Amino acid sequence: MNDSGQCDIGLIGLAVMGENLALNIESKGFGICVYNRTAAKMQAFLAGRGRGKRITGAATLESFVAALAKPRKIIMLVKAGHAVDELLDGLTPLLEAGDILIDGGNSLFTDTIRRTRAVEAKGLLYVGSGVSGGEEGALNGPSLMPGGSQAAWPQIRPIFQAICARTPDGEPCAEWMGEDGAGHFVKMVHNGIEYGDMQIIGETYDLMRRGLAMGNTAMASVFAEWNAGELDSYLIEITRDILGFRDERGEEVLDFILDAAGQKGTGKWTVTAALDEGTPLTLIGEAVFARFLSAAKEERVAASTQIAAIDAALDTDPQRMLADLRQALYAAKIVSYAQGYQLLRAAAQSYHWNLNLGGIALTWRGGCIIRSAFLGDIKKAFDRDPGLVNLLLDPFFKEAVESRQAAWRSVIAAAVTAGIAVPCLSAALAYWDGYRSERLPANLLQAQRDYFGAHLYERVDRPRGEFFHTNWTGQGGSTTSQAYST
């Protein structure tokens, strides 16, 4: 509470993330007022985990707003989509110029752009903030990615940087991302990279399990060893824990989990954004499609009885394969981040955001799902060259991939020979091979487009920007489509 007895900040929405974030805020010395549409949920929280703390509840939006010190700061943690717009319709008439609304959910960034403009038109300030780290992060320190009305940042910064995670060097994992939808866009890309990371780990696990016939305990030991080195990360750490987990009956829980993955849509949004920007996001795209394929469980089971397979055992020395897998996983991880950062660069140009790419890596260094030691190297890469076009051109990452390509190729070849699908590990290699190629077969593709649609082409012996058409059949005319890019 401040000197007037009013709360420093308000929070709407007491689901898992809301409850834990409220407790986090209170534990850092801030008075907080909470509101939930279902009053019973709020009362249960106040009588339970929130009891005896500087947390007050409000029965109505009017009393909630009245309990907050000016300029009011309100975090909304409600379901993305219509629920946010409905809440804004109820809240904005109760607020005054300079009050700050913060959407902490996983909203689509274009919705945040629209809402920022609408809220600012009413004299209010709007922030769309990515919040990553799950339940544990919300309680103990999440990674926060705010963007929107620039004038809001000095007002909310003391709270955000008090409650967020810290890097190993003690730096706060909460920094301003940029204008309007920048914060939610960065969070969306974070989630896309998360999809990719999880899938390449899953493919590595599958090669160990089916290809090397390893048990969960042995695999847990391998992931534990990897987590002590260059692959040190939250997702490798929890993979180790999952593989080593036994329930009260001593059963390995992982083996009883249905192999049909769910998703909330942020990975698909990331791929859609990449398509809109014309940016190759192949690894993350394959990760999304791999989840779709996994969801077709019954269809896959039926197909498995009708389509002939070969022996999935890897014809290789197990210890050598494990060493190659570690290198392949690391190389693919580099490509995943390189593609994600390419998308961030493209969107920053399209939406006129001043993204600090090195700062984003620092924000992801702690608290979030993709946190890893690896991100410190990304921060250093952008410190060396703030205008870096692609992470693969940074000396550290270039050498890292080049030195691992033999092992990476060996893994892909072995997987293909054994009939074990590795869509993301192989897509990452294909991207790297394509990106480093001076010449690709797109000349034939352009000839085909010009043949059937008179779409024009450029020539290697003439300046870029000059377009040509060939009458390939001798029967066409001189009219062209003027649609070179479609």
- H/E series: EHEHEHEHEHEHEHEHHHHHHHHHHHHH
**Largest sheet, spatial ordering of strands:** 3-2-1-4-5-6-7-8
Radius of gyration: 26 Å
Structural class: alpha/beta
Report the uncertain regions: none
State mean pLDDT (0 to 100 scale).
94
How is this structure best described in words?
This protein is an alpha/beta fold. The protein is 52% helix and 7% strand. It is built from 20 helices and 8 strands. It has helices spanning 16-27, 39-47, 61-66, 82-91, 109-120, 134-140, 153-163, 182-211, 216-227, 234-244, 266-277, 282-295, 297-304, 318-351, 357-363, 374-384, 395-402, 405-418, 423-435, 442-453; strands at residues 9-12, 32-35, 55-57, 73-76, 100-103, 125-132, 143-148, 178-179. Strands 3-2-1-4-5-6-7-8 form an 8-stranded mixed sheet, with helices on both faces. α7 links the parallel β7 (143-148) and β8 (178-179). α9 (216-227) packs antiparallel against α10. The protein is globular and about 80 Å long.
Task: Itemize the secondary structure elements and their pairings.
Layout: E1 9-12, H1 16-27, E2 32-35, H2 39-47, E3 55-57, H3 61-66, E4 73-76, H4 82-91, E5 100-103, H5 109-120, E6 125-132, H6 134-140, E7 143-148, H7 153-163, E8 178-179, H8 182-211, H9 216-227, H10 234-244, H11 266-277, H12 282-295, H13 297-304, H14 318-351, H15 357-363, H16 374-384, H17 395-402, H18 405-418, H19 423-435, H20 442-453
Parallel strand pairs: 1-2, 1-4, 2-3, 4-5, 5-6, 7-8
Antiparallel strand pairs: 6-7
Helix pairs in contact: 1-6, 8-11, 8-12, 8-14, 9-10, 11-12, 12-19, 14-18, 14-19, 15-16
